[in-house]
Write a structure and sequence with these properties.
The chain has 241 residues and is of the alpha+beta class. Helix content is 34%, strand content 20%. The strands form three sheets. The protein has a six-stranded mixed beta sheet with strand order 1-10-9-4-5-6, sandwiched between helices.
């Protein structure tokens, strides 16, 4: 299955989950309102507390972030096509939430889709290389498969040896303070071609193409609108210093 077919299939699955929960898909919107409508697909379903592993090798789960709105995305630390762009977008979300005085009420997380290589040590190395200041989590193959299956995210290995890689779904997911998934947007982040140099250096030629022309892109402002909707606040995007 190609990357584009993965995205399309998962988008349909997420939409079906929204319909099953009795909630319709919201239209994509920009920011500015006191309580902007949710972007992407609106949901309301409890997230199971499945085990994960943090950067220090300790067992954890999303339950550790209960009480805050969680902004969640899949990643692999050796990705050169989309993940560094996602990290840049999420770092902007984290920064804007903190600047709005909501740092303790918003948790930004990336959870691995590469159980073959993403050890806690790799997560710590990626944090240093990427310069991000949000949570990075991993797990065993079984743990990550069960975790991402709930969100409709697929991942599978491709190639062998030096060509080994992991194909996966791109998207961003929003979990409220009760631990319920409330929204999902499938697709690449659209950062309007702007990315910190240390993250830009991690991109391949394909990654630079995705930076300039993302497929089904979601924006930082749309992510902030979803967070703000769940907190009853407006959170404007502002360039990182």
């Amino acid at each position: 299955m190609t990357r584009r077919r993965i995205v399309a299939a998962v988008a349909l699955a997420v939409a079906a989950a929204g319909a099953a929960g009795g909630l319709a898909a919201a239209t994509l919107t920009g920011g500015g309102r006191a309580t902007p409508p949710l972007a992407g697909v609106a949901l309301d379903r409890p997230v199971p507390q499945l085990p994960l592993i943090d950067e220090m090798g300790r067992m954890t789960s999303l339950d550790a972030f209960r009480g805050s709105v969680v902004v969640l995305a899949p990643t692999l630390t050796l990705c050169h096509e989309v993940c560094p762009i996602t990290s840049g977008a999420l770092e902007q979300v984290r920064y804007d939430a903190e600047r709005a005085g909501l740092g303790k009420r918003v948790s930004v997380l990336e959870v691995s889709v590469d159980p073959w290589r993403d050890s806690p040590r790799r997560l710590r190395a990626y944090r240093r290389d990427a310069g991000v200041d949000f949570g990075l989590l991993t797990g065993t193959h079984g743990e990550l498969s069960r975790f991402w299956k709930f969100f409709g995210v697929g991942f599978y290995p491709t190639g062998h040896g030096r060509t080994f890689d992991v194909a996966h779904t791109d998207g961003v997911f929003f979990i409220d303070a009760r631990g319920h998934e409330r929204a999902a947007i499938i697709g690449m982040p659209d950062v309007h071609g702007k990315l910190a140099e240390r993250l830009r250096r991690l991109l391949s030629a394909t990654g630079r193409h995705n930076l300039a022309r993302p497929e089904a892109g979601w924006t930082v402002q749309q992510a902030l609108d979803d967070v703000g909707r769940l907190l009853g606040r407006t959170i404007p995007a502002k360039p990182l210093p």
